[in-house]
Amino acid sequence: MKFAEGNNKTRRQFLKSAAIGSVGLAAGGITVQSMALNPPAKPLVLVKGGKSTYSICISESASPSVRHGAEELQKFLEEISGARLPIVTDAVEAAGDLVLVGNSKPVRKLATQIPFATLGAEGFVLRTEGKTLVIAGGEQRGTLYGVYEFLEKVGCRWFTAELSVIPKKATLAIEPLDELQQPAFEYRELEMAETRDKHWAARNRYNGDFHELDDATGGKISYYPFVHSFYNILPPEKYFKDHPEYYALVNGRRRQEDAQLCLTNPDVLRIAIQTVRGWFDEHPDARICSVSQNDRRGWCECDNCRRVEQEEGGAHSGPLLRFVNAVAIETAKSHPDKLIDTLAYWGSETPPQKVRPVPNVRIRLCPIGACNGQPFERCVHDEYFMKNLRGWAKITNQLYIWHYATNFRHYLLPFPNFDELAADIPMYKKHGVVGIFMAADGEYGEENADLRSYVIARLLWNPNVDMNRLVNEFLAAYYGHAATAMRAYFDLSHQQVRPAPRGKGRHMWIYTEPCAPYLSEGFLAQAAKLFDEAEAAANDQATRRRVRKARLSIDYVKLVRSKAYEVRGDSYAPADLGQLTENFHAFMQDARSFGVTSLHEGDPLKYDEEQFAKRMKPYPVVTLENASLRVVVAPELSGRIIRMIDKATNTDVTYQPDPGERNYPDLGGLGLWVFSDYATLGLHEIASDPYEAVWEVASQPGPAELQLMGTCANGLKMSRTIRLQAGKPVVHTETTLQNTGSSALDAVLHSRCDAGPRHIEGSVVDFHSQDGNSVRRTLLSPELEPAGSHWYDGQEQPDGEWTLSGFDNGLSVVNRFPKDQVTRGLMIWSAKGQSLVRVGLWSAKRTLKPGETLTLEVDYEIRKSEG
């Protein structure tokens, strides 16, 4: 056994634990079928005693990938046995024993013909006929994949771009072969940097655009552009000034920022068709063009778009798919071999009632809100997605999936999703999915990236392969003597999310802001012990480095959790800021040494360092009290109330943010902001930013009242009063905004309470709307994602107050306001690793001339829930 990198002796256990010979050959996920031949009675002896009588024969006109396949077969057979088989072509009749690679004259003379017409681009046949070995398949990638399948049968593995396992066998006796394989999915891609290398990607049969595949390695399914392409099709800087009608009508105005296109505008369709045709002309290698929504909400609310949505059952996917179909139909006239791709994502996941995708359209469904800790069919939080998947599967046999393979808020967190992958990839196949993109960071440094890259590759080719066998063979090769401890750590992390009785049944999401809430108490101590064992067992430098890199995950969890702020006296700060600072810089140095370039989506390591320097410091606090309440205000943190405690029950009703959340500790509680326009402010939505304000204490008239002053650089100033009503559990806030500048400014005040009900599963919002209806909304529903938002405007608005229940000790929070000051309300909630309900109110939008003011008054009362 030869290991291409590392110490061979430390990995003797590989053969015993990996059971190499049969991996990847299970029937069901891929096509593996007999060709019904009469195989030879004896094995075919390809090499004996380091010598061979065989030549590798290819067609004189073989494709680049077939030629490369022959070279790969030659290369690895020599590494295995020492015998170098010559490569010949069918230009002249080949003599002697042959390995036939690809379609050639000798292949066409075989008694049993190879079904090239049905193999497609990637299918292949492995066959022994007499003393002849046949490896033949599709010209683009099939024959190449057949070569790698054959080499895997004799024990080769390519675990990473740097680590291969090549056996040493002076004699190669090949048992009779008679099988045909075709991939489970036509499109297979993983967006991890570890998969970029063209040779590794080809050997593990990825074929997506992210991988650096060329003609020799079989090419790939290329996109141009990839996704979120609406503003590539109609750039706002080119069209918006003269044609705002091309863009979505949102809240009564055409919007070029944070929105979509107007998909019922005929000129938008005309320009889109011209643009897509031009892209295909400019990028002839592109197989697919993505005509897909921007990565935000902002759907068009014009009469025509609304009419189409209603015709399609109220789904945003209705006007979207009608538009995409129209582009695809016209594009097919000039580019009949090309495909159009669009997303069913973030508002468009629900399938339409009437329109159906035309043949050259691929729908890419995105389970962005699903729990990734448990198989989708077994998780209560994933019922909504399964409903959408079944709905799309009924109306198209061209369905792609955009699956998520990492936590985008914390790339290094333990992300135990291997059980979920092993269950859901075959589940996708069962529902007719034909292509899968696994979304990740695309940069180096994600947790378990090497193992995840290898296992996903095998599952995408054959969904029914034994995932645990794949994990075992990888760990044995990658960690050597440390593999036992690393397998124990793998199981420990997965026990956190595995359903009972095998695990604790916690849930896990790809955008969980809190730092791994699914990791139980005691996990870090158990994990640290296993990593200690792994480091002690590793007896070569390469293995020790791999163990230390894997350990970054639990080091990251410890670091983030140590950032937690506490109120102590008149200060709000981490328990040991000095030690935290030292640990932070040491961790960042370690991360860089292992090639980590980013900890969060879209942010380089430098961003984290800047944010740490900016935010991690003590903040002064002011405590207000009356007989019923104790309220803590942190003026420098956006002037927000960070604690609101009912004294009778010692219950804090504010949401306490996790130190893993972006912008921590300037989060949670009650606050006031000024915007230029209404902003969506969803949990993970792209929203317009508020005017930045610097807050300070203006005065404290008494123990139950505080005056704050907020100043914006543009001349806007806020005077804010926080007062506890005498003898009542009520916080009264009153904010007056004044334009002290020299020019008019658009302004709208936004008051928000981030509440933390402990029982969000049973949380209910009650109010009377302004049209006199009684409204009762249960926030979580089994058929919906466990997070959501809802605007209340017009006559749907609360008539001066609304009540949120679900807190400890039977408490509720009542939010009151003068209804003539408020134009809309916004409720946002999440049970994804947190228990957060955001209750937001918006004032009227005003253009304030110099000297003019705008006022918003809001009260919050804690009361005992009725019943």
Describe this structure in words.
- This protein is of the alpha+beta class and 867 residues long.
- Among the domains are: 31-182, 2-Layer Sandwich (Chitobiase, domain 2), CATH 3.30.379.10; 223-358, no CATH class; 562-619, no CATH class; 621-864, Beta-galactosidase, Chain A, domain 5.
Give the topology, please.
Blueprint: E1 2-3, H1 14-18, E2 31-33, E3 44-47, E4 54-58, H2 64-81, E5 87-89, E6 97-101, H3 105-108, H4 116-119, E7 124-129, E8 132-137, H5 142-153, E9 157-158, E10 164-166, E11 172-174, E12 178-182, E13 187-190, H6 198-203, H7 230-233, H8 236-239, E14 249-250, E15 253-254, H9 266-282, E16 288-290, H10 303-311, H11 317-334, E17 339-344, E18 361-365, H12 383-395, E19 399-404, H13 418-430, E20 435-439, H14 449-461, H15 467-479, H16 483-495, H17 523-537, H18 541-561, E21 565-568, E22 571-574, H19 577-593, E23 598-600, E24 603-604, H20 605-615, E25 619-620, E26 622-625, E27 629-634, E28 640-646, E29 651-652, E30 669-675, E31 693-702, E32 705-712, E33 716-724, E34 730-739, E35 745-755, E36 764-768, E37 774-778, E38 787-793, E39 801-805, E40 811-816, E41 822-830, E42 836-843, E43 846-848, E44 853-864
Helix pairs in contact: 2-5, 9-11, 13-14, 14-15, 15-16, 16-17, 17-18, 18-19
